[in-house]
Structures are given as structure tokens and as C-alpha cells.
Amino acid sequence: MKVVVLPGDGIGPEITAQAMRVLGEIAPGAETEQRLFGAQAIRETGTPLPDDTVAACLAADAVLKGPIGDPEFDAADVRPEQGLLRLRAELGVYANLRPSRADGIDLLIVRELVGGLYYGASGVRDDGSAFDTCEYSPAQIERIVRRGFELARSRGGRLTSVDKANVLETSRLWRRVVRGLAPDYPDVAVEDMLIDNAAMQLATAPGQFDVIVTENMFGDILSDLAAAVTGGLGLAPSASLSDTGPGLFEPVHGSAPDIAGQGIANPAGMLLSMALLLEHGLGRPGEAAGLAAAVERAIVEAPTPDLGGQASTEEFGDTVLSALAVHI
Ligand code: NAD
Ligand code: IPM
Ligand code: MN
């Protein structure tokens, strides 16, 4: 088993260190290989995603990634985020699973990850105007919507497809594809919901949702919101999957430059991403459940400042490690 580890920027290396401690405990046989990615890679090589990092990721069983991004490059031509979009495309990880749980809430956002506004033609014209284009093919929509239906079938049997069909052509295509596929999943109750209403419903009545399937940018925004209503951004994990190759596992949050270097970042989202890696990437659901339970315990016993506590990143990790001894 080979896991490529991309620690990333800002709080990335701090939370990755805790994930490495935990992986060493749970799967001592797993081989890990650290690679350069993000702002640090730009500083050292001039590009956010060096070719040898891509090659290592493609050859791995799974990729564990910390957040990337640094204010230093926000206005630069070469930016860390460009490397992330390229990595997702190289791995073909079109299905981004972003689960959120809390009392009375158990929802899963299935975000399309390699199309739409993030990947369409874009540019700045001579007159100073700028443009980004949103495009989807029926096949791109079908594969992600099928994932949504299948995941709904394996959970609560309800699928909400989120779009902006009252304005966007791509959303009207999205709806037609959803309607065309629905007869294949008679056991799933499917509804369409407009993105603006979906944001309001998520903020006020998140318990109504089971699986939400949506395009790339709507999923980006809704997943931060879903994290916020279920305990905070520091807790939210994600799994990005293709049909065949290695998956990419990363927290939903960013590099949090405002708290980087202070040793107080919450490593829960990263550790829960590793639980998803154990489950989906290495086929070890038992260890994944044990790790998730240990993280739940640390949230209660050693909360970091974002959760209202005072524990450091390392103390949170210590608590996870001692809880693991009980759960595994
Ligand atoms: P952010 O998610 O980094 O931070 C938003 C707020 O949440 C901040 O106040 C931060 O301190 C807090 N926060 C986030 N994660 C936390 C954690 N684990 N523990 C405690 N507090 C936490 O969003 P931002 O500030 O808008 O973005 C910063 C940088 O991160 C940008 O460069 C952006 O592009 C990048 N980013 C990267 C990813 C990724 O690599 N997948 C995701 C989102 C943002
Ligand atoms: C995320 C992030 C990324 C995205 C950025 C950093 C490109 O916000 O993973 O949610 O928008 O996909
Ligand atoms: Mn995001």
C-alpha cells in the first residue's frame, strides 16, 4: 500500500503531521512518500504541481493532501490553486464526496469536481473585461448524477439535485439528465432544488437532506455551508474519486493563513479525510470507523480553539492516538 502525502501550505504541514502519527499507528505497513505541492512548490520549482509529484500520485494507491494556498500568490500569474485543479484533472477524480454529520443531520454533498466554471475557457480581454465559462457535456453530468443516485440508494434513499435551471443553460441540461436517469433508480426519491433556495434550506433546515448532487462551484460553496452548520469548517473531510485510479483525500477547508504557525489548527478534517482514505482508498473500513470514533472523542475531550476549547493541534492528535488504542 502506497500513500503519497502532500502536506501543502499554511496549516497544512501542522495537520499533516498529526495524520502521519495516526497512520503510523493504524497501518504501520503502509508506505508513505511525501511530495512537493502548492505555494512551497512554486517557491522551490516555479510550478505548484511538479511533474514528479503528478507521476507519484498516479502511481499511488491513494493521495492524502493538506490544504494549499498562500496570500503571497493571490495576485500572481502562477498560483497554488492552479496546481490543485490540474491534479484533480490528472487523477480524473470527478466525484467529490463531502459528508457532514451532527445531531439530526447526516448529509452527503456529491460535488462534480473536474468540470464547469473551474475548467471552461477563461481570460482577460484587451479592453480589460474578464470571462469564465461554464460548460458541461451530458456524459460529464451523467457519471456524477449516477454516483449521487447510487450513494442515495446505499443511504437514506433521497437525492436532491441542486442547480440554477431558471437561469443557466448548463443547469437545464443538468435537470434533463437527472430526469432521464431517475427511472433507473425507482427506489430513490429525487427532487430538484434551485441553488439559492438550497443555501437557505441548508442554513435553516439541514436535517431534511440525505444526498445532494451538484455542479462544481455550487458544491464548493454549499460544502463550506454544510460544514458550518455541523460543527465548523475544521471538521469537514472529503474524498475525491475516479472510476479506477487512486483517490485524492483532503479536508474541505483551506490553508487558514490567519492561524498558520501557531499550532492551534484543528486536525479533525484532515484525520477524517484519512478515515475516508482508509475506507475508499485502502479498503480498510474497520480501521476507518475506529479512526472516526477516535476523532469524535477528541472533539469532546480535547477541542481546539475553533471548537471553543484550548487544545493544541498536537494535543488533539495525542487524544486521538489514545482513543485509537481503545477503538482498534
Ligand atoms: P480557509 O478555509 O483557509 O479559512 C477560513 C476560516 O476558517 C479561517 O478563519 C481559518 O482560520 C478557519 N479554519 C479553516 N480550517 C481550520 C482548521 N483546520 N482549524 C481551525 N480553523 C480553521 O479559507 P480562506 O481563508 O478563504 O482561504 C485561505 C487559502 O486556502 C486560500 O489561498 C484558498 O485558495 C485556499 N484553499 C485551499 C483549499 C484546498 O487546498 N483544498 C480549500 C479552500 C481554500
Ligand atoms: C476546495 C477549495 C478549492 C476549490 C480551491 C482552493 C481551488 O475551495 O477544495 O473546496 O474551490 O475546489
Ligand atoms: Mn472550497
Low-confidence runs: none
User: Structural class, please?
Assistant: alpha/beta
Kindly state the number of beta strands: 12
Termini distance?
Answer: 19 Å
Biggest sheet features: 10 strands, mixed
Number of helices: 11
Helix content: 40-55%
- The largest beta-sheet arranges its strands as 2-1-3-12-11-4-5-10-8-9
The average pLDDT score comes to 97
C-alpha-based Rg, rounded: 19 Å
What is the 3D form?
A: globular
Descriptive keywords:
single chain; 328 residues; alpha/beta; 10-stranded mixed sheet; two-stranded antiparallel ribbon; 11 helices; binds nicotinamide-adenine-dinucleotide
Outline:
With 328 residues, the protein is α/β, with parallel strands linked by helices. Helices cover 43% and strands 17% of the residues. It has helices at residues 12-26, 39-45, 51-59, 80-91, 138-153, 169-181, 195-204, 216-228, 268-281, 285-301, 313-327, and strands at 2-6, 31-34, 62-65, 95-102, 105-112, 122-124, 130-132, 158-163, 189-194, 211-214, 239-241, 247-249.
Descriptive account of the structure:
- There is one protein chain.
- With 328 residues, this protein is of the alpha/beta class.
- The protein contains 11 helices and 12 strands.
- It has helices spanning 12-26, 39-45, 51-59, 80-91, 138-153, 169-181, 195-204, 216-228, 268-281, 285-301, 313-327, and strands at residues 2-6, 31-34, 62-65, 95-102, 105-112, 122-124, 130-132, 158-163, 189-194, 211-214, 239-241, 247-249.
- The strands form 2 sheets. Strands 2-1-3-12-11-4-5-10-8-9 form a 10-stranded mixed β-sheet, with helices on both faces.
- A hairpin with a 2-residue loop joins strand 4 and strand 5.
- Helix 1 runs parallel beside helix 11 (313-327) and helix 5 packs across helix 6 (169-181).
- The longest helix has 17 residues, at 285-301.
- The structure holds nicotinamide-adenine-dinucleotide, 3-isopropylmalic acid and manganese (II) ion.
- Residues 11, 67-69, 81, 84, 233-234, 250, 253-259, 265-266, 269, 306 line the site of nicotinamide-adenine-dinucleotide.
